[in-house]
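Bench notes, afternoon.
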Amino acid sequence: MTPHDLVREHTIYSCVMGSRAFGLATEDSDTDRRGVFVAPSPLFWRFDKPPTHVEGPADEQFSWELERFLGLALRANPNVLECLHSPLVEHVDDTGRELLSLRDAFLSREAHGTFVRYAAGQRKKLDADVRQHGAPRWKHAMHLLRLLASCRDLLRTGELTLDVGTDRDRLLEVRRGEVPWPRVEAWMARLAAEADEATDRSPLPAEPDRARIEDFLARTRRSSALEAAALTS
């Protein structure tokens, strides 16, 4: 079974991400697809394990194997958490619906540190662009602002919302390079400070519910093994 076969035949959840999910799409926006597949349990009983992720088979498509996806989500990886909360779901089966029902189990105040570290890495790249070229990559600046606002609102409300809502026009102005870089820097600093301030009063738990998520993984693996045994009996 090829990696692309795993995606075609064993995907439990897939969605559209990127600008279309964030409410920031323009006429030239790509359609980024993300998904989760469950490799059949017998594939793990070999020396060569199934892939943890697969690119394709379609353009702009990327999928994670379930265990890798859950591990990243437990560590509050921004890209994975946002995938779980996309408003643009393209495919979901019964196992995928159970995965979506666990969204709250992944959310915790640990998201603050993870989002902030990710944002800091992106900010270094923007600063390097400014030093080398006199301006940042404006699309990346827009998405960093969106990420910081998303982090702040998650900590304030306990809910992760992807659509930027009323900030759309302001963010698209940044993308077009219509906002001076010092103003963008000030906006980033304000959002980061507001996220810091929201952490201590956040309704989110201190840690994700690892036991609940691990139980889901074990039951999914067991079900896959039993299905494979039934097919060979």
